[in-house]
Write a structure and sequence with these properties.
By secondary structure, the chain is α/β, with parallel strands linked by helices. The chain folds into four domains: about 5-235, P-loop containing nucleotide triphosphate hydrolases (Rossmann fold, 3-Layer(aba) Sandwich), CATH 3.40.50; about 240-400, Rossmann fold, CATH 3.40.50.300; about 400-450, no CATH class; about 495-525, no CATH class. It is built from 22 helices and 14 strands. It has helices at about 5-10, 40-50, 55-65, 80-90, 110-120, 140-145, 155-165, 180-185, 190-195, 215-225, 235-240, 255-265, 280-290, 305-315, 350-355, 375-385, 400-415, 420-430, 435-450, 465-475, 485-500, 520-555; strands spanning about 70-75, 100-105, 130, 150-155, 175-180, 205-210, 230, 245-250, 270-275, 295-300, 320-325, 340, 365-370, 390-395. The strands form two sheets. A seven-stranded parallel β-sheet has the order 3-4-2-5-6-1-7, with helices on both faces. The protein has a seven-stranded parallel β-sheet with strand order 10-11-9-12-13-8-14, sandwiched between helices. The longest helix is centred in the C-terminal third of the chain and has 34 residues, at about 520-555. The chain is globular.
């Protein structure tokens, strides 16, 4: 591809954005996917993927994309946006042997995730996809490209590498999708995106999906989109009603004990724990492993092979706890995640919605738990106001409460477990000469021998502190909440001082034997005497110095 070709394909400035904003409440949730007019093989893929009713973003975006119009869609992760652009694109494929669709994602994990979902949805439509990202051998990617895929999913860096080195022949996709555009901006890919569009034809449909709409993204949209339709999922739509959202107030030093206690109490089938830093993800996953939990880490500093290994282990339940950073888990879509834990409160409401969107999918219930300190009340309120979510304040369970819940869960599993023929056979053999009560107790002892609840009995606020905290929250959080009975500790120290504590031996704080009061007068007299004697010494010293200096200046005077 020479420079002249490249210049001819550079994007001309498009018409300004029009405010074709569709109403978020205009969609009818009783309408299924059949109403979009999808082909039968597409509907079969939708049914097999577990979709029943279109989400708000799907209901809004699919008809517009099917009509071939450009789109700006502002929607959070977890709202079904991949299917919102994926289904109409698969339905409109011409199968002409060319690359028809390009999807650009910020991370390799999201590229793999989108590729997997597109493949599943187009399973019966003979759809071929290829994911291009760093960490893979280029030769292997070229071999896959020779098989003529209809859809390419790529990260900006590796895609530009292929384009600059002219490895993509006759590359002119009719549809281009930018997924997680704001994330690409945060990661510094904006210049790369603009360069990518210099290699593309102007005769294309462009779809831009973003959780937020900062000014640089708006400027990019004006350059690359042609009179786009604007779609926005409101915060009310962004938070999933199937997710129970809670937060717990703890001391900063209690985070690890709190997360372990909550794992023991909640007994998640699959859980993602979000940390702010990569180092935290490593440390926490290692400590969970050392305590016997099946845990693994996922963050950007890991080798590609290790990251894929962690994701696959989480998918096949080799591990059931994944400790991850925001960037690494961006767009991660794994079925069966029952719990999401925020080890630290997210930095912004958008990040909160992205995180909790990992659970409560495909109509299943999920639980999102956030750990926060008293100083983070404002952040909790900000998330509530922005997402319009109901986030309830809870108390971290005690050791006994946790054990009771574990016992109840174990009994429930035992009662629901089917009785096998082998179990019946053994029972018939031993029932005549075995005490069944002793047998049951011994079996339970075997099961429970490794299920110990560790850590301090009390973590975070107790019920009394929680009640005070709720009152303070209603009053705007003006007073700092008390944790671990700080007021009681201060009053105890004060009482010790009044009773003549050994720590206070200075005369100012000694009690008078004649009066039941602090003997400030005696100490004041004593300190006054000391200050007077000190002033007298300073006066004599100053006069001596003045006398010496005069003699030095006038040596003839004696």
């Amino acid at each position: 591809m020479d420079k002249t070709t490249k210049q001819q394909k550079s994007p001309a400035k498009k018409a300004p954005l029009t405010q074709n904003l569709r109403s978020e409440n205009s969609w009818d949730n009783t309408c299924g996917f059949e109403s979009f007019g999808f082909k039968k093989n597409i509907l079969r893929g939708i049914q097999e993927a577990g979709f029943s009713e279109p989400s708000p973003i799907q209901q809004e975006a699919i008809p517009i994309i099917l009509d071939g119009l450009d789109v700006i869609a502002q929607a959070q992760t977890g709202t079904g946006k991949t299917a919102a652009f994926g289904l109409p694109l698969i339905n409109n494929l011409k199968h002409n042997g060319e690359i028809e669709v390009l999807i650009v994602t910020p991370t390799r994990e999201l590229a793999m995730q989108v590729g997997d979902e597109i493949f599943k949805l187009g399973k019966y439509g003979k759809v071929r996809t290829v994911s291009l990202f760093g960490g893979q051998p280029i030769r292997r990617q070229l071999e896959l490209l020779e098989k003529r895929p209809q859809i390419i999913i790529a990260t900006p860096g590796r895609l530009l590498d292929h384009l600059r080195n002219e490895r993509l022949k006759n590359f002119s996709p009719s549809v281009v999708v930018l997924d997680e555009s704001d994330e690409m901006l945060d990661m510094g890919f904006l210049d790369d995106i603009e360069e990518i569009f210099t290699y593309l034809s102007n005769a294309r449909q462009t779809l831009l999906f973003s959780a937020t709409m900062p000014t640089p993204i708006k400027h990019l949209a004006q350059k690359i989109l042609n009179n786009p339709k604007l779609i926005k999922v409101t915060p009310e739509d962004a938070t999933n009603q199937d997710i129970s959202q809670r937060y717990y107030i703890i001391n900063e030093s209690e985070r690890e004990d709190a997360i372990v206690r909550l794992i023991d109490s909640e007994i998640p089938s699959k859980a993602i724990i979000f940390t702010r830093m990569k180092k935290e993800a490593d440390i926490l996953s290692e400590r969970l492993l050392s305590r016997g939990y099946k845990a693994g880490a996922l963050h950007g500093d890991m080798e590609q092979r290790e990251r894929v290994k962690s994701i696959n282990a989480f998918k096949d339940s080799s591990i059931n706890i994944l400790v991850a950073t925001d960037i690494a888990a961006r767009g991660l879509d794994i079925s069966g995640v029952s719990h999401v834990f925020n080890f630290h409160i997210p930095l912004n409401p958008e990040s909160y919605v992205h995180r909790i969107g990992r659970t409560g999918r495909a109509g299943k219930k999920g639980i999102a738990i956030t750990l926060a300190t008293p100083l983070e009340f404002k952040e909790i309120r900000r998330i509530k106001e922005n997402t319009k979510a109901s986030i309830e304040l809870y108390e971290i369970p005690s050791i006994q409460d946790t054990m009771d819940k574990q016992d109840s869960n174990l009994l429930d599993k035992i009662l629901k477990h089917p009785i096998s023929d082998d179990a019946l056979r053994i029972y018939e053999q031993i029932r005549s000469h075995t005490d069944i009560t002793q047998l049951v107790c011994k079996l339970l002892s075997m099961v429970l021998q490794d299920s110990k609840v560790l850590g301090p009995n009390k973590i975070g606020l107790d019920k009394k502190d929680l009640k005070n905290l709720q009152i303070q929250l209603e009053n705007g959080g003006r007073k700092k909440p008390t944790i671990n009975n700080r007021k009681n500790e201060r009053s105890e120290r004060k009482n010790k001082n009044k009773n003549g504590s050994k720590e206070n031996k200075h005369p100012r704080f000694q009690k008078s034997s004649k009066e039941n009061d602090w003997n400030f007068q005696e100490s004041h007299k004593e300190s006054s005497k000391k200050s007077q004697s000190k002033n007298q010494r300073n006066t004599r010293k100053t006069s001596n110095q003045n006398f010496k200096s005069k003699n030095t200046k006038n040596p003839s005077r004696k």
